[in-house]
């Protein structure tokens, strides 16, 4: 198996990361990428094949907050701060995508583990992601379950399977809020 390296983003990554992320969306949708280069509370990590460090295979980011209302303002699916459990420092996960054809290699887990480490250094005591759980093999629900997250809220995404980029016969997609509390000893 080839080696995966995790690195900080480079300004030249923006277009490729936008294409990587947008490839997961319905046709006609796009996503603007913030690399967080000058923001000490925003940590973007890029996964690459060690033999091709200029070609991103995955991306994930952690944005720190002290206030649940600020977290809710940043979330894509949910904007109600009452859905967010109390914490002193929040770590909101976003941009968690792996390139088609590169899934199943542990890239999402490596990115998530590294972001958990950064968050621990910064005092994050609650990680959360408002995520798109879908019927594809690469649904983030599996990743979050393996890493100790609990899904605390779900809302169905009502659309026909023909409009869904992941589900084939029936769309089972949900907007989901997953959280992981850090114990004092972690």
Commentary on this structure:
With 186 residues, the chain is α+β, with helices and mostly antiparallel strands. The chain has one domain: Aminopeptidase (3-Layer(aba) Sandwich). It has four helices and seven strands. The two termini are 31 Å apart. The model has no long low-confidence stretch (mean pLDDT 87).
What is the second-level CATH architecture?
A: 3-Layer(aba) Sandwich
- SSE pattern, N- to C-terminal: EHEEHEHEHEE
The rounded distance between the terminal residues' Cα atoms is: 31 Å
Q: In the CATH hierarchy, what is the class?
A: Alpha Beta
* Gyration radius from CA atoms, angstroms: 16 Å
Characterize the biggest β-sheet. 7 strands, mixed
Helix content: 10-25%
Largest beta sheet: strand ordering: 1-2-3-4-5-7-6
Class by alpha and beta content: alpha+beta
Number of strands: 7
- Low-confidence parts: none
Per DSSP, the total helix count is 4
CATH fold name: Aminopeptidase
Q: What value does the average pLDDT take?
A: 87
How many discrete domains?
Answer: 1
From the spread of the alpha carbons, the general shape counts as globular
Strand content: 25-35%
**The CATH fourth-level homologous superfamily:** Gcn5-related N-acetyltransferase (GNAT)
């Amino acid at each position: 198996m080839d080696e995966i390296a995790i690195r900080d983003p480079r300004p030249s990554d923006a277009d490729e990361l936008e294409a990587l992320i947008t490839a997961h969306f319905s046709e006609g949708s796009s996503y603007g990428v913030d690399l967080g280069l000058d923001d000490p509370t925003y940590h973007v990590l890029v996964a690459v094949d060690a033999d091709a460090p200029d070609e991103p295979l995955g991306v994930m980011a952690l944005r720190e907050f002290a206030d649940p209302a600020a977290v809710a303002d940043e979330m894509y699916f949910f904007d109600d701060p009452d859905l967010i459990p109390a914490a002193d420092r929040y770590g909101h996960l976003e941009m968690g995508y792996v390139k088609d054809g590169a899934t199943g290699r542990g890239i999402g887990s490596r990115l998530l583990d590294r972001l958990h480490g950064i968050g621990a250094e910064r005092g994050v005591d609650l990680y959360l992601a408002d995520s798109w759980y879908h019927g594809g093999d690469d649904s983030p629900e599996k990743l979050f379950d393996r890493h100790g997250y609990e899904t605390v809220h779900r809302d169905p995404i009502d659309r026909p399977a023909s409009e869904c980029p992941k589900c084939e016969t029936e769309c089972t997609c949900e907007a989901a809020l997953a959280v992981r509390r850090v114990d004092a000893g972690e």
